Amino acid sequence: MSKSLNLFLPAIGGTALMLGGAYGFTSRDYAEQKIESLEIQVEQSTSTAADAVANSRAAEAEIERLAAERDELQVIAAAGGGLTQPAPVAETVYGLGREALPEEIAAWDVDVLPDGRGLPVGSGDVWTGEELFVEQCAACHGDFAEGSGNWPVLAGGFGTLSDEDPVKTIGSYWPYLSTSWDYINRSMPFGNAGTLSADETYAIVAYILYSNDLIDDDFVLSDENFMDVELPNADGFVLDDRADTEYTVWRTEPCMTDCKDGVEITMHASVVDVTPETEGDAQASMTEHAAGTDAAAEGAEGAIDPALIEAGQGAFRQCSSCHEVGENASNRTGPELNGLLGRTIGSVDGFRYSNVMRDAGEAGDTWTAEALEAFLTDPRGTMSGTKMAFRGVRNPEDIAAIIAYIQSVGTE
Amino acid sequence: MDEFAKTSRRAFLRGSAAVAAGTVAGQAAAQGAPDPAITELQDWASYLGVGVDETPYGLPIKFETDVVRRNVAWLTASPISSINFTPIHALEGTITPQGCAFERHHSGAIELSKDDYRLMINGLVDRPLVFTYADLERLPRENHVYFCECAANTGMEWAGAQLNGAQFTHGMIHNMEYTGVPLRTLLAEAGLDAAGDLTDKWVYVEGADASSNGRSIPMEKALDDVLVAFKANGEALRMEHGYPVRLVVPGWEGNMWIKWLRRIEITDAAVESREETSKYTDLHEDGVARKWTWVMDAKSVITSPSPQMPITHGPGPLVVSGLAWSGHGKITRVDVSIDGGVTWETARLGKQGDAKALTRFYYDMDWDGSEMLMQARAMDDTGYVQPTKDQLREMRGENSVYHNNCIQTWFVNEEGVAENVEVS
């Protein structure tokens, strides 16, 4: 048992006791109230007529039962645990778990604090950052960090925080630069997290700063000058002050009658009409289920191996942040994939293809299994200039499975 | 027939019609012809049902397929980094079945096995440690029922009534019985002497998925009631809720309930991760944002009637059912209004409130078939009274996104159809 931990434990024990006491007290109150009302019933019934004698006996039995319940609750309350008795506090440690090795801590403990602690040695410039950003981030965040669709906008928005529609970006809202380094390094790119080197992360952060007009284009961000960069909204936050500003106002006895002069409806949700159709949803999910069964049945007849389709469904997750396939599939960051095998390259209506895809289509090229395999293995090597910000399927076995899955659910 | 007889016959007919309506409302309706559901031999009463080897693990019967999680596609860019909603309108009692309890992921739900599971405790500790799942099972454990509410629950309603259904307005919540090891037990294993004075220390917790969602929790809370949980409602956590191990942070916003918990670090400062700076901070009208708004204030909602649960039975006895909860403690009282907040009556609690857990309330009424503006208002054991949306807006503006615990209004028309509205 750690000495310092003990400092807190009396307080915790105290709270538990108090809560336990409160529970017992409330329950006792409840029991006593019930006893009181029953005792009144007893009085009333005995004073009225003889046929109430049976009732009063029942009431007396109920009083006894409640008193027993009360005593039991008092015992639990005295034990200090309320309904759940707390886990024992060990006098010594249990000695479970093993020591974490320095290499293991280094692998997982990569968070970066606002004061720069945790930043590795390294550096990156704006132009390297731009190349990386266009390749790895722009599919969702736009070439200039301006965002795409519902994906986050990373640049601009200055002076909008008190507007009707504030734009909260790294430049306009985020208080600490460390947060962007930490987040990009650990959690980005989406679907390929943890693959950036320290220098690449510095470069991408530099490019985002540049997109926000916070540094010049010749700036090289490094662990050494990192703390020199201050974000504009560093002082834009206050600690939770609800206890002072709200609780003091809203801890009052509420009004029960004549609380306002009149009531008018000021807004209807049906006017906005943005609620998903719930019946439709249920039907859609059932149809989807049925479609899956059909596809599996088809596979069982020898067309496509169902196990391969199932494996492909799992492997397709790395594609599904950008691509949809199956019933009602539509273009998202990438084009929808229904009928992909045999389809002319770059031919989906309404999708803005890269030049390389459009040219291939105009030349009459179609997506064959071989072409797909080559593309998915090395997208940029195969179709130089593609907008698909994906480094390729790592496991070759996944490629056949993904193609099988697309074929099975993506029939037009 | 003379004039008097005609008049009195009409009067009689009017009278009997009124009586008949009263009967429908008050008691069971009279049955004209015998009910074939009773008089005819039904298949299920004659043929055989399903054997015990058919369903090793059961799902709800096919008649309940509409009681499912739903998402709102336009809310987010991708369903992989998104949220769905518990069908609270169709559930009763207080415990949320895991299979329909809302999910929120930042990089999708992952499949992490118990064998592959590791939990590291490092930072300002005497002994940095690695635990396996089997280690966790050997430490003393506790059971507690707690609600988990996303800070963004009701967040789409700040600027006005928007989504038509309790599932969509209030369904970013679930309530389960968790089994887990108190976090303080694990911290004691690692030893906190190295941390020195604990009052200004933090416990940073992080998930194993690709988003590695991380949050900083003040030491006082970590040593109080936080659980490292591995079961919910008696069985293993579901993948989407962090199997095999998640953090339970009672009464505090759901984003801190780290799923697939892989690391606990004792620090001398908040990490100020993405999820505690750019997100889960509450921007106010003046352009200044509140941070570290961890506690979920008292809140309630009528789950039925509600837009997805219209009144289909006509006037007469009506059960108004709803949920109330508070991150500060127990729900002590819920009031219900059917006139948009002019008059209130105290509802009946389904059972005595548990601290930081959902409480079910009922308001048993005789509906006369007229329009209603239904509201519920919760109070907790700190004396806090759930505010109106106008009170919240006056304090914070409309861009706060998170922590909208306003009183909700459902407009119920004479047909029993309910709609999400705002009232003066």
In short:
The complex is a heterodimer of chains A (412) and B (424). Chain A is mainly alpha-helical.
Would you tell me the overall average pLDDT of chain B?
93
What gross morphology of chain A would you assign? extended
Largest sheet of chain B: 5 strands, mixed
Class of the largest domain in chain A in CATH?
Mainly Alpha
Provide tags for this entry.
heterodimer; A: 412 residues; mainly alpha; Cytochrome Bc1 Complex, Chain D, domain 2; 3 domains; two-stranded antiparallel ribbon; 15 helices; 5 strands; disordered N terminus; B: 424 residues; alpha+beta; Sulfite Oxidase, Chain A, domain 2; Immunoglobulin-like; 2 domains; five-stranded mixed beta sheet; five-stranded antiparallel beta sheet; 7 helices; 29% strand
How would you characterize the overall build of this protein?
The complex is a heterodimer of chains A (412) and B (424). Chain A is mainly alpha-helical and 412 residues long. Chain A folds into three domains: 3-79; 116-228, Cytochrome Bc1 Complex, Chain D, domain 2, CATH 1.10.760; 285-409, Cytochrome Bc1 Complex, Chain D, domain 2, CATH 1.10.760.10. Chain A contains 15 helices and five strands. In chain A, strands 2-3 form a two-stranded antiparallel sheet. In chain A, α4 crosses α7. The two termini of chain A are 66 Å apart. By secondary structure, chain B is an alpha+beta fold. Chain B has a five-stranded mixed beta sheet. In chain B, strands 6, 7, 10, 11 and 12 form a five-stranded antiparallel beta sheet that branches. Chain B has a five-stranded antiparallel beta sheet with strand order 19-18-22-23-24, with no helix packed on it. The longest helix of chain B has 24 residues, at 3-26. Mean pLDDT of chain B is 93; it is low at 1-26. The interface between A and B is large, with 107 and 128 residues. β1 of chain A pairs antiparallel with β5 of chain B, so a sheet runs across the interface.
